[in-house]
Amino acid sequence: xxxxxxxxxxxxxxxxxxxxxxxxxxxxxxxxxxxxxxxxxxxxxxxxxxxxxxxxxxxxxxxxxxxxxxxxxxxxxxxxxxxxxxxxxxxxxxxxxxxxxxxxxxxxxxxxxxxxxxxxxxxxxxxxxxxxxxxxxxxxxxxxxxxxxxxxxxxxxxxxxxxxxxxxxxxxxxxxxxxxxxxxxxxxxxxxxxxxxxxxxxxxxxxxxxxxxxxxxxxxxxxxxxxxxxxxxxxxxxxxxxxxxxxxxxxxxxxxxxxxxxxxxxxxxx
Length: 270
Known about the structure:
By secondary structure, the protein is α/β, with parallel strands linked by helices. It contains ten helices and 13 strands. The strands form four sheets. A seven-stranded mixed sheet has the order 5-4-1-6-11-8-12. The chain has a two-stranded antiparallel ribbon with strand order 2-3. Helix 1 (about 5-15) packs antiparallel against helix 2 (about 20-25). The protein is globular and about 55 Å long.
């Protein structure tokens, strides 16, 4: 199916008559998003002492808890099941598991290995799956019920950062990643694994993770970078002010000045 045909069918899901909608949904079935992984195991050390008591994903930004907001957006897009990978203060996330479609998966290795250990815990659940970080805030819903191909979200930056900058070919396939740069499109936000990508990724990561300690100590993105010839991810560009990432207190305050008044820990300790 071409991308143009895919887009036409997506429109028919909402604009056609009942017969056309049903036919479009049947044709799009292989592209239907099945699940999401929401990674929430980390401590968020750069936000200490705020995160000494509250995991980063449970911080309230502009009146909404980060994890709750992202879960709501995923469900609104029709995602059936969410695998919430926890680690640091895992018990505080337990209330989210009251929803039978939120599956809490604890990663006991979060404090000694990198986020590859979190993705390893849900390898068997990967299908047509969003991979998300709990410290992202999306000002609009970036999730869709149907996705054409595997991608990594990207935003444009023009100041020096240590982000992962992307080089792509004419079809927007990522062909190189440079850590750190001053100008260009860099990784930020959600990732989408198609079923075929998930199968390839699982086949590569599982034996490597189990046999090689060094694999556990890197980011899953770095593992992907080692296998870019085999694993095809495409760049999906977003405009400014759609995807936010909160690494430091300054990041949060720039987005939500009221956070200072609502955070008891910060008033007490900072």
